[in-house]
Structures are given as C-alpha cells and as structure tokens.
Amino acid sequence: MFRTFTIAALFALAATTAQADSSTQVAFGDLNLSRPQDAQILADRLQTAAQMVCLDANSIPGIGKAQMQECVDAAISTATARIEEQIRQHLVSTVHANLVSVRQRVSSADEFQH
C-alpha cells in the first residue's frame, strides 16, 4: 500500500507527570511502516524510549508499577498518534500534488487538440 516512506523529522516521545516533563527523540525515517517487520522495529524503539522517559519523569520514590505502565502507555499512544498524523498529512500532500499534475497534463493535452 505504501511505498518506502521516509520522514526526515524526529518525533518527540513525551511523557508528562505532575512532577516533571521529560522527552526523547525517536527516529523512524529509515523505516517503511507498511512492512510489518519495520513496524515492529518502530514499536521496539517506542517501547524502549517510553520506558526511559517514564523512568526519568517518575524518578521519585514510591512510583508503582501501575503508574509506570500508565506513563509508558500514554507516551506510546501520543507518539503513534503523531506519527499517524504525519503520514496522513504526507499522503494528502502527495495525492494533492499528483492531482495538480494530472490537471496540468490534461489541460496541456486540450491545448494541443485545439
């Protein structure tokens, strides 16, 4: 469905708590997210980054396992929503550019016929 999709931007994977804000960068421009194996690589990167961010953000004593898991889940959810939005914007932009090109070609062809 997708050709190799490259995103130059890095997304911040952020986890916010009442005590602190923490984030890290997760690169995925080298992945083709239409391939299951690349999607798994991204999932692994997000999991690792979310755990690091959440450990950093929740480095106060007494943070339980449930709070850590909530933080990780929220961070991954935020990151994947941002990635999906970037893909949507890229696709809309690409389709729009292709349609403009088609209109220009059709218009040029009409000029030659008259």
Which spans of ≥5 residues are poorly predicted at pLDDT below 50? Answer: 1-20
| Discrete helix count | 2
| Widest beta sheet: strand line-up | 1-2
Mean pLDDT, to the nearest integer, reads 76
- General shape: rod-shaped
Query: What percent of residues are in strands?
Result: 5-15%
Largest beta-sheet details = 2 strands, antiparallel
Q: What separation lies between the terminal Cα atoms?
A: 39 Å
**Helix percentage range:** 55-70%
Secondary-structure content class: mainly alpha
Q: How do the helices and strands follow one another from N- to C-terminus?
A: EEHH
Number of strands: 2
- Rg over CA atoms, rounded to whole Å, is 21 Å
Ordered list of secondary-structure elements with their pairings:
Layout: E1 11-16, E2 21-26, H1 36-57, H2 65-113
Antiparallel strand pairs: 1-2
Helix pairs in contact: 1-2
Descriptive keywords:
single chain, 114 residues, mainly alpha, two-stranded antiparallel ribbon, 2 strands
Structure, described:
This protein has helices at residues 36-57, 65-113; strands at 11-16, 21-26. The protein is mainly alpha-helical and 114 residues long. The protein has a domain at 11-87. Strands 1-2 form a two-stranded antiparallel sheet. Helix 1 (36-57) crosses helix 2. The longest helix has 49 residues, at 65-113. The two termini are 39 Å apart.
